[in-house]
Amino acid sequence: MSTPATPVELRELIRRQEWTRPTTGVCPGIIQANLVMMPEAAAFEFLLFCVRNPKPCPILDVLEPGAFEPGIAEGADLRSDLPRYRVFQNGEFRKEVEDVKDIFRDDMVSFLLGCSFSFENAMLAADLPIRNLEEGKNVSMYTTGIDCRAAGRFQSKMVVSMRPMTEAQAVRAVQVTTRFHLTHGAPVHLGDPEKIGIADLSRPDFGDAVTTAPGEIPVFWACGVTSQLAATSAPLPLVITHSPGHMFVSDLKDEDLTIL
Amino acid sequence: MSTPATPVELRELIRRQEWTRPTTGVCPGIIQANLVMMPEAAAFEFLLFCVRNPKPCPILDVLEPGAFEPGIAEGADLRSDLPRYRVFQNGEFRKEVEDVKDIFRDDMVSFLLGCSFSFENAMLAADLPIRNLEEGKNVSMYTTGIDCRAAGRFQSKMVVSMRPMTEAQAVRAVQVTTRFHLTHGAPVHLGDPEKIGIADLSRPDFGDAVTTAPGEIPVFWACGVTSQLAATSAPLPLVITHSPGHMFVSDLKDEDLTIL
Fold first, then answer.
1. Chain A closest CA to B6's CA: distance in Å?
2. Is the domain of A125 the same as that of A208?
3. Which of A72, B34, B49, B194 has the fewest CB neighbours in a 10 Å radius?
């Protein structure tokens, strides 16, 4: 598989199931998104959850019930244009699939939420280290002890992603990522992992462990995986999400969503 | 009526109907909010409208159906703690009242949206002119030709507020207000009013006309009145809003909602 040059080319490959890998690093500078699909009957409460927790669940787009072409990618089909999906029934994980056209229902509402892949490009441009890219791994993610604000039936602890760097680099990273408020924005914590309920950095709850070099501290950003925990915290008949790392690649540029 | 020192004191005066005036200029540095209440059956679509139009309708808080104590003001009661309300039935304006306890229903969802009063304090601190305050008037507001993104049954043109200033002051105003993204943020337009469909600056659609001095240009910010037009664009059985200028005064400080 060669690397596609544009989001449209990538989504075509994915739709034909010729690209089933993670989307980390593809189409740099283009906004990627977390996906959550659920029945309309629960959509108001879930939208409320996202609104109340904008750092982990920044809303990029929400579609009308039954719609699958998002406003942020003309001609795309959310039922087939992600490399891999997770299917949950009654709150329990059932299977991973590469297409959900057969199970998508007319009452399903699709949520696209910001992803930290978007600010990694800006961090690299600022010569900040992204250890998981250096080591060819998935980013380290942890379930913290931080309670999100609940909404109706939905609740979750906040999940964070972690990137190790020096203190001076951490200051610069705060500056660089602040601009990207719709893709998690500034860090939620830096330094002592125990203060946010993380017992062991070498054992992430999602993704891979990475090396923290001498003189480096961990820096933590709110992570979109929080939305998956929240969406599956209630026993809904059907919830569909992307598979971690297998994001929806939009037509928006990172810069389209910066606040300054 | 003396000027109350704290939001709690102000809300108590309002609840006793001892303060029925606009809230412009009271409790400087404290976040004020637009209010929209509507039945739960339409709340998802209206929340979607706000999410899709964050400049005119920045979401500060959304309450569960039937709830009236907001998360941003402990002990407050949205049914009585605004100086004046507007009541709409089947999309038509019915009356203005000072309390809605008798008509509030268990299925009503309350939305609190950001208000530009919040950045006026920061503009004054930066020595930028706010002509309507100088002239003791309400801010000038206009319905533009700009279409908001529709959501379900809700649609609206964007309403803007206008403040005249020099070009150099306009540049500074962009910088100052950018920080306040949850209270309308940076301007949506500056200069030629006709470009956004405003025919005559001397005839605002809401509020009062103010003087534009020689050498000044109009600077336009998205305005929360947009949410009232949208909420009443569909013939819902009951919609309650604040009366223009008679906002909900929260416990949050302006600085609590800045992005940097």
1. 26
2. yes
3. B194
Contact yes or no for B52 and A43 at CB 8 A: no
**Which chain B residues are within 8 Å of A152, Cβ to Cβ?**
64
Q: Is B172 exposed, middle or buried (0-12, 13-18, 19+ CB in 10 A)?
A: middle
Identify the DSSP state of A125: H
Indicate if ipTM > 0.90: no
Residue B186 has pLDDT above 60, yes or no: yes
With a cut of 90, say whether residue A112 has pLDDT above it. yes
Contact between B109 and B37 (Cβ < 8 Å):
yes
The answer as to whether B1 is a domain residue is no
CB contact under 8 A, B59 and A51: yes
Residue A172 pLDDT > 80, yes or no?
yes
What range does the domain containing A164 cover? 117-226
B185 → chain A, closest CA residue:
A259
Say whether pLDDT at A2 is over 70: no
Closest residue in chain B to residue A61, using alpha carbons only: B52
Whole-model pTM: value is 0.91
DSSP B114-174: E-THHHHHHHHHTT---HHHHTT-PPEEEEEEEEPPPBTTB--EEEEEEEEE-HHHHHHHH
For the record, the structure tokens of B138 come out as 């309400």
Residue A181 with chain B: CB contacts under 8 Å: 181, 259
Percent residues over pLDDT 70 in chain B: 99
Instruction: Identify the contact set of chain A against chain B, taking CB-CB distances under 8 A.
Output: 40, 43-44, 47-48, 51-52, 59, 62, 64, 71, 149, 151-152, 178, 181, 185-186, 259-260
The CATH number of residue B131's host domain is 3.30.2040.10
Interval B4-22 mean pLDDT: 93
Q: Are B174 and B249 part of one and the same domain?
A: no
Q: Are B98 and B17 in contact, with CB atoms under 8 Å apart?
A: yes
Cβ–Cβ < 8 Å for A72, A61: yes
| Average pLDDT of the residues in B99-128 | 94
Q: Do residue A245 and residue A205 come from a single domain?
A: no
Give the C-alpha separation, B239 to B110, whole Å: 10
Residue B172 has pLDDT above 80, yes or no: yes
